[in-house]
Amino acid sequence: MGPRLKLFFPLILFAMLAITLFRGLSLDPSEMPSALIDQPFPPFSLPSVNTGKSLSQADIEGQVSLVNVWATWCVACRAEHPYLRQLAQSGIPLIGLNYKDQDADAQRWLEELGDPYRFNIADHDGTLGLDLGVYGAPETYLVDAAGVIRYRHVGVVNEGVWNTILQPLYQELIVHSGAQ
Amino acid sequence: MMPEIGHFALIIAFCLTLMLAVVPAWGAWRGNATAMALAPTLAVGILVFVGISFACLASAFLQDDFSVALVASHSNSLLPPIYKFAAVWGNHEGSLMLWALILALWTAAVAVFSPQLPLLVLSRVLAVMGAIGVGFLSFSLVTSNPFARLLPSTPVEGSDLNPLLQDPGLIIHPPLLYMGYVGFSVAFAFAVAALLGGRLDASWARWSRPWTNIAWGFLSLGIMLGSWWAYYELGWGGWWFWDPVENASFMPWLAGTALIHSLAATDKRGLFKSWTVLLAIFAFSLSLLGTFLVRSGVLTSVHAFATDPARGMFILVFLAIVVGGSLTLYAFRAPTVSSRVTFAWVSRESLLLCNNVVFLVATLTVLFGTLFPLIVDALGMGKVSVGPPYFNAVFVPLMVLLVPFMGIGPLSRWKGDDIARWRSELIIPALAAVACGLTFPLLNAPYNIWVALSVLLSSWLCLGLAQDVWRRLRNASSAARGLRRLTPGYCGMLIAHLGFAACVIGIVATSQYSLERDLRMSPGDTQELAGYDFKFVEVTQVRGPNFIADEARVVVSRDNAIVTTLLPQKRRYLAGGSVMTEAAIDPGLFRDLYVAMGEPVGNDGAWAMRLHYKPLVRWMWLGAIFMAVGAFTSVLDKRYRGQRGVVHSDSKAALHGA
Known about the structure:
Chain A is of the alpha/beta class. Chain A has helices at residues 3-6, 9-26, 75-89, 103-113, 127-132, 159-179, and strands at 45-47, 54-56, 65-70, 94-99, 120-123, 139-143, 149-154. Chain B is 64% helix and 11% strand.
């Protein structure tokens, strides 16, 4: 290798880095659909946060619902919480997936801030989160009546997200399952 | 009206940076002295207009102008005025304005404080800084306009600044950090100007050295404040998390540390020229990369700003132009002939080379660890996170490797030295260091091998410095005269190296000797930790300007003598309803006592409480302050003040040479 060629080495390294970063941008977590879209919700057998009784994927089936991944250590979940309560009050079925958390902390949170969920799955070790490909809390999955994942939203669910993205899909699924 | 004036001033500043990037560069290329002479004026003009723009934004925050979207989403009328001001940079758009302001400040400083610089070099340096300014101001104007209005539906109240950021540490942390980040643009600009001019001699190193030292000092302070803030504000007692955003500030610091040492060799001996240029490019590139990582959302972090792929793309393109462009220039213009200056393996040059290798390896391991999740994701191999175990596993051996050389460094001679001389000078410090290292941990049972090692290394470093000072005084006719002969450059090195030693001891002692207890405490309970009795007296409700808090009163005593009363709080902020833990700390040179409140437990007034005992935790921050003070001191050295007359003819020669 000539002495001049050696000086191109940093440039080549940087080019590789830039390509990785470019890929990273297109992999933007909130843009990325889950690999599980249109796949059945992964099977699991985990206790309930509130009662400790065992829950499985069968408990999610039967109606169109939102599965919300949350944790007490997640600051954004706290911001999201009041809107989830509004949604629950308007009759949207919400299921909590308490991700990498302590039951005692989670119960205190629900007591303090109110419980919008029909039930809460206690995923202490994040195994179900791993199967779902959870990137971080909060995340929300739209699951149809047959237990198939239809949409994944990464980040906080607020009025804007609900009105523009989730509600249209939700209505569509309701109509669809009604027709079946 | 004010926001529009601010926006307009920003646009004018943008036009001026465009001129600064083009006109002096053209002048330097064509040998047009008039065009070159325009550069300093433009640089000052940019500072004036960015300053006006920043002032307009700040006044919108201070006057609660919620018609400005940024103010409405990051401020609140209840916020104390000082936090309203700090809220300006507590968000993406505003912090970008701070970036632009500080860049303008550095550019103008170079323009004003470089009278000894040949006009040709000055115009090239300022043009490069102007080009960087074009990138940042267009980023601000195109993707992140801080002056966007919410008209006509102006909210009556703002949604408040994130309570985590309502803190004195945060008022000064970002400005100091950015002073450091952006300051490396000066070294970068000097390096690129030297490459453009093709005159890679020792002079460019001498010119850029003081700027680089100042930037490095600010960066040290900025990182220190960030760590301190995390320590008392997050309520976990942790001070470093190897979080991507922390790494983003740490990588330029590591590369900058290599750079200031390599610059010393280039300045004094004309060695490592290409290498130093590369490091200057590297240090600033890492600052830009940090900006990309924080603002693009490619990595998840506790500190990340609101992210937006469009912004990420903009910075990536900017990064590609600046870094790719400068590295291309480097590949074509860096000298390939090895310098005629030679040095023996046993010499100060070799020791500086050791420093450079260690810090470069450290930078690359942190870079790799930070980007690893992204690389794995880009290759479609799933998602992983790299935690503290990886960073600690690589970092500790590197530092252990570094310090032995650091102890010899100040004593060593340029060009060639003698191992026998080192041995005779350093045998006493070495033995004393081993003695200190072995005995110190005996004071604190149980015996801890890591503390022993850190004390050994630090005392080796300090005693080596003491030996060197003594050697210098010994050779002087009187002690006073000897002290006077210690140059500011030497004193700066001394202070900074002592700071590093303090830092090492502080980090290791805190990590090894800290005690922590999570307890349920009812009013009246007393718990013991590290010989201190913590008595939980009561919880009262207190009201702050924009929050309500439960405040616990914890009386700390030792051997029945009261040491202090700590008042930790659990705050609920009125605007957002968010709950924050405000730890109470009794600081001390040798130990911190730290109490944070968890949640109320049960109905009898009991609380979950977290008690910490943190020995020597202050030493690492004091060490960082020492490093910064050392860097600032070194700048006072006479060698950086060029003699006007000589340089004047030099600049004329340079002009004709172009």
